[in-house]
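The freezer alarm interrupted the setup, so I double-checked each line after restarting. Inputs confirmed:
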Amino acid sequence: MRQQDAIIQTLKAKGLRVTPQRFAVYANLLDRCDHPTAEQVLSDLNQEAPTSSQSTVYTSLQALCEVGLVREVLLEEGVCRYDANVLPHHHFCCRCCGRIEDIAWEDLQGVSIDRVRSGLQVESYEVTLRGCCEQCQSANS
Amino acid sequence: MRQQDAIIQTLKAKGLRVTPQRFAVYANLLDRCDHPTAEQVLSDLNQEAPTSSQSTVYTSLQALCEVGLVREVLLEEGVCRYDANVLPHHHFCCRCCGRIEDIAWEDLQGVSIDRVRSGLQVESYEVTLRGCCEQCQSANS
DNA sequence: TCCTAAGTCAGAATTATTCTTAGTTGTGTC
DNA sequence: GACACAACTAAGAATAATTCTGACTTAGGA
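Predicted 3D structure, all chains:
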């Protein structure tokens, strides 16, 4: 209950109308720690009962992105994934299974952008690690 | 001429057949320092005379990727860009115009992955800087 | 309660990419 | 050089992700 109210307040604070569909999309994203595609959110929401149409999920995700509650993550070809963790953080992407995991900002410190040529005004950065996750390591051995 | 021979040798060394179309795709990528989309390569090649079909450009790019002569760069929604610079390096992506620029590997040293949890086997990483390029800075002011 | 802008829907349209099938060509072998 | 065959290419159909369209609905302020 508390959680739901918090979501409603957050949406309102960003000037978004609170509709059942939009609520469901955002709640779903907050609830899961993977980085689902629009398609995955859609099917997840409609699993038990039809909740939202495809285009609604797309526009909801876009609206949430625009106000900064959600961000797009581009780590894989062709599809766009979404992440409700908008605090700065990095990503680990498994080469084998495609799984994506958040890496805490503090776990990768030491990136110094001093030497980047001065013409470029750097506002943010993020690191993408690639490699092999535990499951795939044991599966391959 | 030397350049052309070098390209031919490189392709052969990777076990790829040297065809006019594949040669043209790779030469085009090497020649430009931006990171074109498949679409851009296609229209560039066919600007003066029809050289390659759409699907040939796609399969050529894929073949070049597979042997490691070219890599995909995913910095922008929806489209896949290609980069003939396969030495490790980072990217700067302009928030305003979308321009992408290579950042030399040495210019961003000091990323230490020690603190990443040990279950993840990190094989490579790259940093994406986001911000505003010179042109856009002066355009906005 | 009423109004209206914002949101939603179903399905069509668009866009990037891949597949299919048939024809073409480079290359090792004779 | 001729042959065979696998790799390559073309044109267009197919697919998949996303966006658009136009009519309908609804949240939330007056």
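Quick read of the result. DSSP finds five helices and five strands in chain A.
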